[in-house]
Amino acid sequence: xxxxxxxxxxxxxxxxxxxxxxxxxxxxxxxxxxxxxxxxxxxxxxxxxxxxxxxxxxxxxxxxxxxxxxxxxxxxxxxxxxxxxxxxxxxxxxxxxxxxxxxxxxxxxxxxxxxxxxxxxxxxxxxxxxxxxxxxxxxxxxxxxxxxxxxxxxxxxxxxxxxxxxxxxxxxxxxxxxxxxxxxxxxxxxxxxxxxxxxxxxxxxxxxxxxxxxxxxxxxxxxxxxxxxxxxxxxxxxxxxxxxx
Amino acid sequence: xxxxxxxxxxxxxxxxxxxxxxxxxxxxxxxxxxxxxxxxxxxxxxxxxxxxxxxxxxxxxxxxxxxxxxxxxxxxxxxxxxxxxxxxxxxxxxxxxxxxxxxxxxxxxxxxxxxxxxxxxxxxxxxxxxxxxxxxxxxxxxxxxxxxxxxxxxxxxxxxxxxxxxxxxxxxxxxxxxxxxxxxxxxxxxxxxxxxxxxxxxxxxxxxxxxxxxxxxxxxxxxxxxxxxxxxxxxxxxxxxxxxxxxxxxxxxxxxxxxxxxxxxxxxxxxxxxxxxxxxxxxxxxxxxxxxxxxxxxxxxxxxxxxxxx
Amino acid sequence: xxxxxxxxxxxxxxxxxxxxxxxxxxxxxxxxxxxxxxxxxxxxxxxxxxxxxxxxxxxxxxxxxxxxxxxxxxxxxxxxxxxxxxxxxxxxxxxxxxxxxxxxxxxxxxxxxxxxxxxxxxxxxxxxxxxxxxxxxxxxxxxxxxxxxxxxxxxxxxxxxxxxxxxxxxxxxxxxxxxxxxxxxxxxxxxxxxxxxxxxxxxxxxxxxxxxxxxxxxxxxxxxxxxxxxxxxxxxxxxxxxxxxxxxxxxxxxxxxxxxxxxxxxxxxxxxxxxxxxxxxxxxxx
Lengths: 245, 310, 286
Prior knowledge:
The complex is a heterotrimer of chains A (245), B (310) and C (286). Chain A has 245 residues and is α/β, with parallel strands linked by helices. Chain A has 9 helices and 10 strands. In chain A, the strands form 2 sheets. Chain A has a 6-stranded mixed β-sheet, sandwiched between helices. Chain A has a 4-stranded antiparallel β-sheet with strand order 2-1-4-5, with helices on one face. Chain A has helices at 44-51, 74-80, 97-107, 115-129, 144-156, 174-189, 201-207, 225-229, 232-239, and strands spanning 7-16, 19-29, 34-37, 59-64, 67-68, 82-84, 162-166, 193-197, 210-215, 218-223. The two termini of chain A are 35 Å apart. In chain A, helix 3 (97-107) packs across helix 4 (115-129), helix 3 packs parallel to helix 5 (144-156) and helix 4 packs across helix 5. With 310 residues, chain B is mainly α. A two-stranded antiparallel ribbon of chain B has the order 1-2. In chain B, 55% of the residues are buried. The termini of chain C are far apart. In chain C, a hairpin with a 2-residue loop joins strand 1 and strand 2 (133-136). Chain C has helices at residues 2-33, 40-58, 62-83, 90-112, 137-159, 161-171, 173-178, 183-208, 215-230, 235-255, 261-275, and strands at 127-130, 133-136. Chain C has a domain at 21-215. Chains in contact: A-B, B-C. The interface between B and C is large, with 40 and 43 residues.
């Protein structure tokens, strides 16, 4: 982990009506695989939406590589180097798998990429995630695991500095979960920083170097996976008060 | 490009037709067919490729028609240039209403555009000093004889249709086209991979308007008369919609195929039945069936059967 | 001078009430199922034709005719949703319903021609006068029935199990189904109910105004304007917006020109969607 903060979340709050989806969340991220866990409704997806510009926070700032990105529109944030996957994959259903990744390669960077270069990059990424055989198939015919792989390839095609992964192992078989974890480590090996938000805690614990925990929109724990897993506040959040020893 | 070569022969034939001693009725028929095809292609850019289904495209047609009429009538601008100006006027109009309107999704976009179609008609009916109101604008007949006149417009519409088709063909294969299709399939995801959706939608909207503006601009001179119910007729919108749906949205030839089939049927019913509205009854019935059972349209269905068709 | 204003106001309010009834059905369908029923006004016109035809051709009492029409429309509405509309996405539903309305309109032209019709009930042909303002009895009765029906709808929504289920579904589909509500059935019944409301309103309008198949096209813009301006899923909003637009239409027709009046509804619709899509009382658009 380098010393410079890649991403800083400063006092971010987001309200929907009277409900606080995020309540004064702050942390500094310096790199490496960081996990974000928390029970359902804890505000995890909202946090991603705020970071990527889908929502504007009611309070607080998001600083990426030293620049304030709080009020930028999503497509600008992508070009600056933050990519994401979606909890429920959102492929471009009528386009082919290759076209899905090509579109990303063309538009995801600062300038516009040429079609041939984008095609080469797309082929490379499909190989990385293991979808090469399905390149000319329409995205809508992929199964859930393949869609998630496509989501990763598409996000990577934007040449991000930071990849936000949103609950990617939900609904996968144990074998698929293993493949996914290996893939995420490989992505990290390519030099892409990863913040991985997950509901399935076991997967995170295996891969992450640092874990933060959200509950009711608030940050309640921050540390190494083993520390966080045995933190009574975290246990209480997941299981309810009666279960704390 | 090689795929287009088989089309060169029919196109050449189309160019030759007016030189043969065919009856004017057929020249008229084809000319109007080209016009409806252009309208459908224009609608297809926004709806078929970008996924924004407009119900008021007649607004752009009418803007083009009136631009031609007013420029010719009041300022004596020479013809055909007026249609291009009409197209530009329609595009500019689109750019004015596009930003707030394209933010709306799905059905809301549809009812807003539907409203625009009606608003324009009422507006032009009431602004009598500029538009002549319900009396419309009459354009001077040119010094040519009827046959030459119609043949000139035949070529004008045919060339416009070919240009519009070529533009759509190139668009489909371009990076812009890919972006539009991504917007259609999942706009939020498109944003998330860096596509500037607002800009792209605007471009599609203005291009779509351009096609219909040119079409309208040519039409008003061809008819030598234009009034609001004709220029902003809901039929213009309706025909474009159903022709594209039948032929296949998001394809190059779909709107043309839909236009050929449906325009032929509409002309047939016009001369066979005395009751008005049979054509619309058939059109809407066809649309209902296509939406329910063949939403990908004719070209879409052919593509599923592995037929290579643009 | 003031009398003219009052007359205009009164006319607007009376007609606004009937629009409220028609729009409430549309608002219900829109609010519960996110479907913009483009064929709503066509069903209203259909209802008017059914009652008219039975009345004029067979001498059937309009009240009986209306009951028959309502039952028929409910069946059609339920069947239409269950077998046709539910098969497509929400955007395609609008297009589909639009095409259905076109089909209905032109079939009505074919069957009943474009002649202007009106359900003329002699007993209602009188008019009352208060302070120089004329209040035709047929409009008063139509207003009363319309407001009564809207009130009944409000009561159903607030106090009956069905109504609460509808409101729950409107707010959160997942929560509603977790509570044991059969969301699909709610959708089907709501659609039928919405069409029925249009049908009742259609008969009212058929008594007050001359109608013809294409009149649906002029009503639908106004209806969407009311629903959007009032706010989706809000009965209060629909009522308020109906009265406001009814009065606005009336005032513009009286003081300015009746040829500009139809534009008001469309402008209200466009501007509301541009600036404040949730309207007066609606929830934020999803």
